[in-house]
Amino acid sequence: MSEPVLTIVVPCYNEEEVLPVTIQELSGLLSRMIGDGRVSPRSRLLLVDDGSRDRTWELIYKASLANQLVKGLKLARNAGHQNALLAGIFTAKEASDCIVTIDADLQDDITAIPEFIEKYKDGCEVVYGVRKSRKKDTWFKRCTAQGFYTLMAKMGVNLVYNHADFRLLGKRAVTELERFREINMFLRGVIPLIGFKSAEVFYDRKERLAGESKYPLRKMLGFAFDGITSFSVTPIRLVLTLGVAACLVSILSGTYFFSLKFFGETASEWTTLIITIWLIGGLQLVAIGLIGEYIGKIYKESKQRPKFIIDIDMFNLPFGLMNQTEPGTERYHLDSGKLPETN
Ligand code: UDP
Ligand code: MG
Question: What count of Cα atoms within 13 Å lies in the side-chain half-sphere of residue 6?
C-alpha cells in the first residue's frame, strides 16, 4: 500500500494567540511524518477559519504563502465548531485518504497522530483519540463533563467515553458521513453510527496553550442539550411519564379529599390547592417546551439550509498560483479570495 495522503483539519475561531505555535507544531509534525515515509508528500494541514473576528485568517493566509504544507479555508461567517469541522473534512475529502481533526489550542497530544495512522494502515476507518484522565481540567469542567456522559448514556446515546473531536476518519467513513444529512450535526454521536472497524488511541490532554475556551458554560449546556435532543426522544417520554404520574397523584388525592367529606371533615387547605396548580402548570409548560424543542429541530431540518458557507478555499488552489508575487496580489487574495487574473 502506498503511503496515505493525510489532511489535518483544524477549526479555528478567534485563535490568533495560539495559532502561530499550532501551525508550527502541526506542520513540523506533518513534515517529519512525510520525511519518515509514514504519509504521502501530498499530505496537508488545513486550517479552517470559522468566521473569526481577530487576525486568525491573516495568520492562516500568511502561513499558507510561506509553507506549502499549510492550506486555509475561510468560512463566510461563524458556523460553529461542528460545522467548521465538517467544512474542513468535506473540502479535504477528495484529495485525502484519511483526515485527522484536532482543536487549534493543541490540548490534544499531537504525537498520537502517527499512532492514528498506524491504526488506519491496520484497516481502521475511524480512530478515536481518547484522553487518559481529566486531571488537567478544572474541577468544574471535569464534573460537567462527567455529568454530560452519564446523562447521554441514560438517554440512550452512545458516546465514546472521554473522546472529543480528536479523531481520524478514512475516506470511506467520510463518504458515509456525508450521507448523514441532519443540520444539527453532533459528530461525537454520529461517528459511532457509521460503523466500520475502529480503534481508540489514548493520550494525555493538556491545558489550552493560549487564548481562552470558546465553550463557556452557556455554550456547553447548549451543546449537551442539542446532543440529547438530536439523538433521543427519551426527554419527551420522560415528560409523558411525569404527566401520567401527576394525573395519578391528583386523582388519588382527589379521591382522598372527597372521601374525607363523608367523615364530616373538610379539607379547605389552600396550600395543597395552590401547590397542585403550580405543579401541574409547571409540568405542562415543561412538556410544551420540550415538544417545542423537537418541533423546532424538525423545522430546522425541513429547511435544509447549508451547514456552512465557504468564502475562500485555498485547499484546492495550486501552490504556484497562490504564491503570486505581483504587487497587490496578496491583498487581493486576503480580502476577496479570488484568483488573480492569469493570462
Ligand atoms: N471553534 C470553532 N468555532 C466556534 C467555537 C470554537 O471553530 O464557534 C474551535 C476552536 O477554535 C477550537 C475548537 O473549536 O479549535 C474547540 O474550542 P475550545 O478549545 O474553545 O473548546 P474547549 O476545548 O474549551 O471545550
Ligand atoms: Mg480546547
Answer: 31
pLDDT for residue 230: 79
Contact predicate 227/157, CB 8 Å: yes
Q: Which stretches of 116-225 are assigned E, i.e. beta strand?
A: 126-131, 163-170, 198-203
Bridge partners, residue 198, by sequence: 126
Q: Torsion angle, CA of 154/296/216/144, rounded to 10 degrees?
A: -10
> What are 80's three cell numbers?
460553529
- State the DSSP code for 107: -
End-to-end CA distance of the chain: 40
Give the Å distance between the CA of 200 and the centre of ligand 2. Answer: 20
- Give nearest CA residue, ligand 1 atom 24: 213
How long, in residues, is the chain? 343
pLDDT profile of the chain (343 residues), mean per 10 = 90 93 94 93 94 92 89 92 94 94 91 94 93 76 81 80 90 93 85 90 80 76 80 79 82 78 70 76 82 83 84 76 46 51 46
Q: From the CA atom positions of the chain, what is the Rg in Å?
A: 26
Q: Record the pTM.
A: 0.74
The protein residue whose alpha carbon is closest to atom 3 in ligand 1 is: 81
Distances (CA, A) of 24 to 18, 27, 45, 205, 318: 10, 5, 11, 19, 21
pLDDT confidence of residue 331: 42
Q: Amino acid identity of 282? A: G
